[in-house]
Design a protein that fits this description.
With 364 residues, the chain is of the alpha/beta class. The protein has two domains: 238 residues, Type I PLP-dependent aspartate aminotransferase-like (Major domain) (Aspartate Aminotransferase, domain 2, 3-Layer(aba) Sandwich); 114 residues, Aspartate Aminotransferase, domain 1, CATH 3.90.1150. Helix content is 38%, strand content 15%. The strands form four sheets. A seven-stranded mixed sheet has the order 1-9-8-5-4-2-3, sandwiched between helices. The protein has a two-stranded antiparallel sheet with strand order 6-7. It has a two-stranded antiparallel ribbon with strand order 10-11. The chain binds pyridoxal-5'-phosphate.
Length: 364
């Protein structure tokens, strides 16, 4: 009787670091300073250095990171913001929170934003900002996008929630655009033990705005100098947990990448298309395969004790809460969203579990 392979198991990672995490938690409890203290400022310093960015601003979660970065870029109600529709509605939620309007750009076969489609959109309507999602852990065509947007004065915000530590040409995700927006939701490659987020940037003025915006718009205690402020802070407990985990991130990413490469090599089923591009610019946050008969494939995996999921089943423009978007056409986004299946890929998977996943895929 084989056991079930989970899509993720956070206890396995946290158990390895249990003593350190518990000691850090105790330190925070005993210090008696729980919001915007030394754990947060030290983490901001350490994460900025890790990302090769001039500054880092801790916030409450990844969606807030995108929203506050858009606000710091002066995006206002009614402004158009270009983004993709295949990345779980997070950027859409941030854009809608401001009262701005998402302009959905189709993706290409990499699941990343299509530069050709973006170029077309920028030529037409007055797009005010672009959010580029590094989906599934792979850095999108960010250099081309920055080169396209910079001369037009359009800020590029990177959604790095799935790409902590990915790097290309010696530069880390979050250091290419105007700002990098991170989530530390527990399942992320760098995950807290609760919610958390951060924004990286090289622009000191942008960073100063973000520090105001994350705390009511204050430039000092109880003085609101900037409109559009929120309460969105990375708390001391989560910052302390992240400081313990950050030194392990490169190793965990390498382990995920190694596993993804092995999957790509050993999964040999002509009906299942595997990604096969796990260089330094892909930290294998999710291993997402494509197949025509998705339901049949998932049932088979289930019968072999292998968990699976879909990231994400409903493209943003089709979400019922925002009208279902019958007028928007995104052929590649829609084609892929009907075929994608996520299978277990995390650093702590055991050898027998890895074999079980590979055999389940190959025996379908
Ligand atoms: C691509 C992407 N962007 C943004 C977010 C939002 O992060 P959070 O859940 O911390 O708000 C997530 C994760 O949840 C994500 O996967």
């Amino acid at each position: 009787m084989t056991s079930r392979v989970p899509l993720n198991d956070l206890v396995r990672q946290n158990r390895q670091l249990h003593e350190e995490l518990a000691a850090a938690a105790r330190r925070v409890v005993e210090r008696g300073w729980y919001v915007l203290g030394s754990e947060c400022s030290e983490f901001e310093r350490e994460f900025a250095r890790y990302c090769g960015s001039g500054d880092c601003i801790g916030v409450a979660n990844g969606t807030d990171a995108i929203e506050l970065a858009l606000r710091a870029a002066d995006v206002a109600p009614g402004d158009l913001v270009a983004t993709v529709a295949n990345a779980g509605f997070y950027s859409s939620a941030a854009i809608h929170a401001i009262g701005a309007v998402p302009v959905y750009i189709d993706v290409d076969e990499t699941h990343g934003i299509s530069v050709a489609s973006l170029r077309q959109a920028l030529a037409g309507r007055g797009v005010r900002a672009v959010v580029v999602t590094h989906l599934y852990g792979r850095i999108a065509d960010i250099e081309e996008i920055v080169a396209l947007c910079e001369p037009l004065g359009i800020p590029v915000l990177e959604d790095c929630a799935q790409a902590h530590g990915a790097s290309r040409g010696g530069r880390k995700a979050g250091s290419f655009g105007t700002a990098g927006c991170f989530s530390f939701y527990p399942t992320k490659n760098l995950g807290a033990l609760g919610d958390g987020g951060a924004i990286t940037t090289d622009d000191a003025t942008f960073a100063a705005r973000l520090r105001e915006l994350r705390q009511y718009g204050w430039d000092g205690k109880y003085r609101v100098a900037r409109s559009g402020g929120r309460n969105s802070r990375l708390d001391e407990m989560q910052a302390a947990m992240l400081r313990i985990k950050l030194p392990h991130l490169d190793r965990w990413n390498e382990e995920r990448r190694g596993l993804a490469r092995r999957y790509a090599r050993e999964m040999q089923n002509p009906r299942v298309r595997c990604p096969n591009d796990f260089g330094s610019d892909n930290v294998a946050h999710l291993f997402v395969v494509c197949c025509e008969d998705r339901d049949g494939f998932r049932k088979h995996l289930e019968s072999r004790g292998v968990s699976s999921d879909i990231h994400y089943p409903i493209p943003d423009h089709r979400q019922p809460g925002y009208g279902g978007g019958a007028e928007v056409s995104l052929p590649e986004t829609e084609r892929l969203s009907a075929q994608i299946v996520t299978i277990p890929c995390f650093a702590e998977l055991a050898e027998d579990e890895i074999r079980q996943v590979i055999q389940a895929v190959n025996s379908w």
